[in-house]
Amino acid sequence: MSETAFTAKNITKTFPGVTALEDVALTLQHGSIHALLGENGAGKSTLIKVMTGVYRPDSGAMVLAGEPFEPHNTRDAIAKGIGVVHQERNLIPRFSIAENIFLEELSPHPLRHIDYPKLYRDARRWLEMLDIDAQPATPVDQLSVAKMQLVEIAKALSLNSRILLLDEPTASLTPHETDTLFAILRRLRDEGVSLIFVSHKLEEVQEICDQVTVLRDGRNACESRPLEDLDRQSIVRLMIGRSEQIPDWSSRDRTSEALALELDDVSTKLGHENIDLKVHEGEIVGLYGLVGAGRSELAKAILGKYEITGGALKLGGEPVQIRDVADAVGRYRIGYVSEDRKSEGLVLIHSVLENVGMTVWQRLVQGIGFLGRKKIRRHTEPFIRKLDVRTPSLEQSVGNLSGGNQQKVSVAKWLAAEVRILIVDEPSVGIDIKTKAYLHQLIRDLSNNGTALILITSDMPEMIALADRIVVMNDYRLKGEITNTRVYKDMSERIMELIQDETSPMSGARSAE
Amino acid sequence: MSLMVSPDRADEGAGAARDTGEAPERELGPNAPLRFLLSNEFGLIILIILFAVIFSTLSPAFLSKFSLYALGRNAAVNIMIGFSMMVVIITGGLNLSVGSIGVTSAMFGGWLMQALGVPWVLGLLGGLAMGAALGAINGVIIVRSGLHSFIITLATMSIFFGVMIFLTQAESYREISPTLAGFGRLKILSVLSPLLVTSVVVGIALSVLFRFTALGREMLASGANPHAAELSGIRVERMISYCHMLSGMLAALAGLMLVSRTGAAIPSMAGQLGQDWLLPAFLGPVLGGTLLTGGRVSVLGTLLGAFLVTMLTSGLLLMQVGAFWVQTYLGLLLLAAVLLDLARRSYLAQRKLV
Amino acid sequence: MRKVWQSDWFGPFAITLLAIVIVGVANPSFLSPFNIQILLLAISVNAMIAFSQMIIIAIGQMNLSVGAIGGLAAISFGGMMEVWGIPWPIAAILALMIGLLAGIANGAFVAFTGISAFVITLASLSVFKGINLGITEAQPFYKVPETVKALGNETFLHPLPWLVIPAVLVAVLLWYMLFRLPLGRNILAVGGNTHAAELSGISVPQIVTVAHAISGFLAALAGIMLVGRLQLGQPTIGDDWLILSFAAPVIGGAILTGGKVSVAGTFLGVAIVAIITQVLVLFNIDPFLVQVVLGGLILWAVGMNRWREVRAERQAVAAGT
Fold first, then answer.
1. How far off is chain B from C134, nearest CA to CA, in Å?
2. Is A134 within 8 Å of chain C by CB?
3. What are the tens digits of pLDDT across the range C283-310?
């Protein structure tokens, strides 16, 4: 038996103009749950892609169960023993649990009758092992997300995977489901299964993992260290390379300014309830929460995409009925920088000019009228310059720009729209440090000029640097609100407390689980 | 169902972890003139000239005044049919009912002129209005149901045609306005058909729409990325409906042009259920470089593409290929066109010239 | 018992039953053996057409060339018998091979170029139709052997016509393949979630090609059956197949994005269309309206399917199974 389950050494991967991974290493022991951490853009996803055969590394070597491991493609990687459970589900919706688990081996020959009773019997074993409360013949699209995930784990294990890689497994799970999952993972570990656990939730990592590898800027910040040696501060320091340094921005109190936006006991069609939120002019209100808390959804409800079913949305003190997004943008000057810039923020096949102008075409002509490039350019170019978008020409397809410049374009279009209220959702995901700092300064400047901002981010340092007040959300409800003292330790603790607090009055009647 | 070319796996490098914040300027191609030379439109112009030379060498009659006139007149209708499909393609969808709408609108116009004795102007306007209305029906159903335009327009293709045939009892209108019929036979400088001029004028109007109006830009954005467009304040559903309405109107115009050319409104002018228009409706835009995935348009390309196809058809006929084999060649042409376009675009993408 | 209620074929089945009862009561000649024979003849051929599209819907694509392939096979069948004097069983097999090859060509192009099935089959539809016209010059082949004519119209067990046999056989085989054999499950997997199927080692290009091959084969079979039925090698065979080929599977509950089709549902969809068509004739309603009805049925069916999907989704989320 080999000494380690999996080893990666000296892994380097570059793309034109970018070094994604440099000399990265990771060693996974048998019977271990190994955390892989790193900020967005640190190289985590590239390393995962190398491990799962999506990319071939430029140099370096991997060893799986004692054998050299050089997968040609994803399929090859799976066949050689890497079991992966991705964030997005990879199941055939209308097939049963049993069929999904055994999809590769439904029968010895494509034209040989499938023995369904046997399939169901075999599947039942896995269901019992993973404590999944469902019948093997149930179509998976009738299952909850948590159960679907367990089915995928069963599938990966059934393929005699040597190691199991879980990518953000708790992203869509309730705390209770997370506990169930962790119990199963611990049991697997005790039985000798080796797992790599990729997550951005440090609390969970500390709860369940025994070793950790942290990537930062494409390199190892630490490699396969026992987790018990590290406390939270140390981990964070490894991830961002400095103890939380907040730029020298003074605390501000803008609560005496006019109210730009107010949500008064708002509930939405998506399940938000009792949302009370106030944003003053010139203020940055942070909306903190874990993935799945309902923040982006709330933002989109404000934007008019989802229906507000109760309470009042007030702009400038007056209750308004926003009919749709066009109404919110055109009439009420609300803007939203989406967290998913490639599919929601930008039209990748269109040019920089076309993208930045999208929000203002209507306004520039008032209905039917001629709108030449010159006019659009005259209006939008100042904002493109202001954001220092690096592009050889305004006609360049946005899809060809770097991530940071793409993000700048998606912000520029809201500046061009001269919004009064701007909601910024996860602005620094996949962005280089320089652009990140730039955007932070921009957000600060915008608020100084009177724009009301809501900042949604899971990046604690970013939140504490920028927000004047921080509102904590969980499970589509508000958990609490704190004024930002800009003292990191203090703020981060208070925020964590609010998130984990299940007996907070705002959570309503919820039985302890 | 996937109507799009499968995603290009080659560009997964775009998800790189750490990037330097600078556009990779080195990789970008040279200037506008080269881009034009490699563009679809220029390629089509070359092909048109090439085939003109080939055909005229093989058969001098090809360049005769009458032959050119007929070519222009036939091309005019194909161009219009191509435009009709093109404006729906930019939304990333399809309109299988172009033929149906074209025939129904033309028959409606014919009915107005013959049965009601209405002057030709009103007959034309009536036909166009019918086209717009039918297109709007398509648009509304598609937008409201969220179902794919393929199956919706497949159904409406049948419904529109069925109602039309039922109402007309498959009878033609042969006594339509003499002005209209005359228009179709007019010769400008003995080579140019006013129908061709009409198509070109409409083409110019469409170009202006997409390049110089907010409406046109919003249509393109809605087709390229409806999510992003919606979140930027564009009324995507409205834009898609407008595109379908415009498509219906253009189809109606094509049908009316056919009426003008033949001098009569015949229910079978587009084949069973209007199916005969499907191939030209796609050939024009596809050859012209309008992406089937939506968001990009080339009006000039569609025009040149439709013209090339018409030229190839009449050239083949002149060469005694036999009318029955023409369709085979057109099918092969469509196949060749998409394959070439695929090759061209992946070449350009690799060189980051696009 | 609830499972039956919720299955795809129950709705169409109920409607079919209802329609038969109502029409039978209103016009007793509807249920006469002769009329049943006519109905079954139409249903048998149409079912084959519907199946040839259904298998492509299963992989989430569409085949616009079903009619053209059917027509090409039909005239090849007729032509081989009339012009080359080939005995009909061999001519039939050869014509089926033509359909198979046409399907393989479609599938290979789609699978290996990545160009959408829509465009490929639009192009191939023109090519096949063109070849058809080129060979026949729009003239039918009249010399069809008596046996073939008999098989296409007579009964083997009154009132069941011979043509029912291939229809039922194909239906059973398709059902068995799609729901009991890995090949069929792979086809549905590719339609249900292509990426997941790929990751599980299913060769998507291979499956796509196989599906198109089956589609071409079935289209050719339908064409041959029609030659028997019409007693002519008619070049226009296939011209009006497009709408029907989608209507029946969709009425039967098929989801156009792929991964969900019902053989029984499709068969019943064909039955419903055939009954409605007959009814229009029986009640002297203009036959031109058949087209309208077909279109309307499609709209209604896709709307219903969509509504059921949405509702099922909501129930799953709410139940949190």
1. 5
2. yes
3. 778 877 888 888 998 998 898 888 887 8
